[in-house]
């Protein structure tokens, strides 16, 4: 569903310390995959802890349009009665994936090896994002895409009648591209192989194995090589979605930069392909501890405890870490602005093709708040102003990007003057309880027109 309605400006200001426990919502990547794989299994998958953000709700609606029976039960559990691999029906409506790159790219993969046509669209942000990175490999299976210039949405995908398996080396580090190819490979006979030079989040591989597919990863000279055997019968699962490290990043980083704070964020997924931000923060000198490490639903989790950290210093973030923290650079730039010294962030060209050009969006807002930011095509650099040293007093343009909106509001909690974001609505795509959760910790976040 595309975002409608008038923009809702929001503002945050320095208040008391942030304290207490922050229960963040379920992991967005795992939530999308639970619904899609549940829809491709034979029988009923049960899901608890599903993220009920707009991105995931749009994927749930898409799975129903393709023939799965998707139900939300009282108490918040979900069930998906799947149609089996190859069993999707041609939807009689356009599939609207709203703001979600993950939703549209994974669903395009899943339908590409079905003999039917599906039309996809999204909001203004999604319709501006590149889809050729997915439709190119899907063409190798025999699917055909007709979209706008540059392979943009709205786009109709005509699935392959007689799909063939594919061997594909991803040209960009993208779990969405990798996952689209694997999901297409599910309904192709024989072995589909994806090779990625840099490891990206591996939830698809873990979950496909959990659903009973034959899938193996090995290291080769070319990189990580993933081999999937097509046309399995997927077995329905009971899934407990771990809490999202990308959402946890906001209360954690807020606690690190707001004087006197001490916040516990329990049950956070710490899959190594997702946890790069936390390594970076520790290297910067953050007082961040990992308590009660355990395994939940096949993913490592821990309770994170973050305390105000006035001695943080800028670092050079290793470029090989980028994929494991790709969604966290906007909030890292806020922490960097409140640290001493320079934070260098190389190897991040992908940030320019997210919901917004995230380097440009953060650089514009941070500069208006008195922070020095330099940037190039695939790098940026923030010069910190030290704890409490950011002037603030400016407005960020959210550009339909939830992570920009939330990062701006966290900055305002540690700046001299309040920080405004012109539209807080995109926050609901991934973190619908952000405002209440931060308020409960003691933050002052207000709707500007309220
Ligand atoms: O596969 C996924 O669930 C995701 C992959 C990443 O995108 P890319 O594949 O474009 O890097 C990430 O930015 C997105 O939030 C979620
Ligand atoms: C990039 C993101 O999501 P998507 O690509 O699914 O829109 C994100 O959540 O930061």
In short:
The protein is α+β, with helices and mostly antiparallel strands and 450 residues long. The protein has 2 domains: 10-26 and 242-447, Enolpyruvate transferase domain (UDP-n-acetylglucosamine1-carboxyvinyl-transferase, Chain, Alpha-beta prism); 28-240, UDP-n-acetylglucosamine1-carboxyvinyl-transferase, Chain, CATH 3.65.10. Helices cover 28% and strands 26% of the residues.
Describe this structure in words.
The chain is of the alpha+beta class and 450 residues long. The chain has two domains: 10-26 and 242-447, Enolpyruvate transferase domain (UDP-n-acetylglucosamine1-carboxyvinyl-transferase, Chain, Alpha-beta prism); 28-240, Alpha-beta prism (UDP-n-acetylglucosamine1-carboxyvinyl-transferase, Chain), CATH 3.65.10. It is built from twelve helices and 23 strands. The chain has helices at 28-40, 54-65, 101-111, 132-141, 175-185, 203-210, 245-257, 276-284, 329-337, 358-368, 402-412, 434-441, and strands at residues 10-13, 19-21, 42-48, 69-72, 78-83, 95-96, 117-121, 144-148, 152-158, 167-169, 191-196, 215-220, 223-229, 238-240, 262-269, 287-296, 299-307, 342-346, 372-376, 379-383, 395-396, 419-421, 444-447. The protein has a four-stranded mixed sheet. Strands 2-15-17-16 form a four-stranded mixed sheet. Helix 3 (101-111) packs parallel to helix 5 (175-185) and helix 4 packs parallel to helix 5. It is globular and about 60 Å long. The chain starts with 9 loop residues before the first strand and ends with a strand. The mean pLDDT is 97. Bound molecules: shikimate-3-phosphate and phosphoenolpyruvate.
């Amino acid at each position: 569903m595309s975002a409608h309605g008038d923009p809702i400006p929001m503002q945050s200001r320095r208040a008391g310390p942030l304290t207490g426990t922050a229960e963040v919502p379920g992991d967005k990547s795992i939530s999308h995959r639970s619904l899609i794989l549940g829809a491709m299994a034979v029988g009923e998958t049960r899901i608890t802890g599903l993220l009920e953000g707009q991105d995931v709700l749009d994927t749930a609606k898409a799975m129903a349009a393709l023939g799965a029976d998707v139900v939300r039960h009282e108490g918040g559990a979900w069930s998906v009665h799947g149609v089996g691999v190859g069993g999707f029906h041609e939807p009689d409506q356009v599939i609207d994936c709203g703001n979600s790159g993950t939703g549209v790219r994974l669903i395009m993969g899943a339908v590409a090896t079905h003999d039917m046509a599906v039309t996809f669209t999204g909001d203004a942000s999604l319709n501006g994002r590149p889809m050729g990175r997915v439709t190119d490999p899907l063409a190798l299976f025999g699917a055909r895409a007709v979209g706008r210039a540059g392979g943009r949405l709205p786009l109709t995908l005509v699935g392959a009648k007689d799909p063939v398996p594919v061997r594909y080396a991803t040209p960009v580090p993208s779990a969405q591209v990798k996952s689209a190819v694997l999901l297409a490979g599910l309904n192709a006979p024989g072995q589909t192989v994806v090779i990625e030079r840099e490891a990206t989040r591996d939830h698809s591989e873990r979950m496909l194995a959990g659903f009973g597919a034959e899938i193996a990863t090995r290291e080769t000279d070319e990189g990580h090589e993933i081999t999937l055997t097509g046309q399995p019968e997927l077995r329905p699962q009971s899934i407990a979605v771990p809490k999202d490290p990308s959402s946890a990043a906001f209360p954690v980083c807020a606690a690190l930069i707001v004087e006197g704070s001490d916040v516990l964020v329990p049950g956070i997924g710490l899959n190594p392909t997702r946890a790069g931000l936390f390594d970076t923060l520790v290297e910067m000198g953050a007082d961040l501890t990992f308590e009660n490490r355990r395994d939940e639903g096949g993913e490592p989790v821990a309770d994170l405890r973050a305390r105000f950290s006035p001695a943080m210093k800028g670092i050079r973030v290793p470029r090989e870490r980028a994929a494991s923290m790709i969604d966290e650079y906007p909030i890292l730039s806020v922490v960097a602005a409140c640290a001493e010294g320079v934070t260098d962030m190389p190897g991040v060209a992908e940030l320019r093709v997210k919901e917004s050009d995230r380097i440009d969006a953060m650089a514009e807002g941070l500069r208006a708040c008195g922070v020095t930011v330099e940037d190039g095509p695939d790098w940026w650099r923030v010069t910190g102003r030290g704890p409490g040293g950011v002037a603030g007093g400016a407005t960020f343009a959210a550009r339909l990007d939830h992570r920009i909106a939330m990062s701006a509001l966290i900055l305002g909690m540690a700046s001299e003057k309040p920080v405004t974001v012109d539209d807080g609505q995109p926050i609901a795509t991934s973190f619908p309880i952000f405002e209440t959760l931060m308020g409960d910790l003691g933050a002052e976040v207000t709707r500007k027109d309220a």
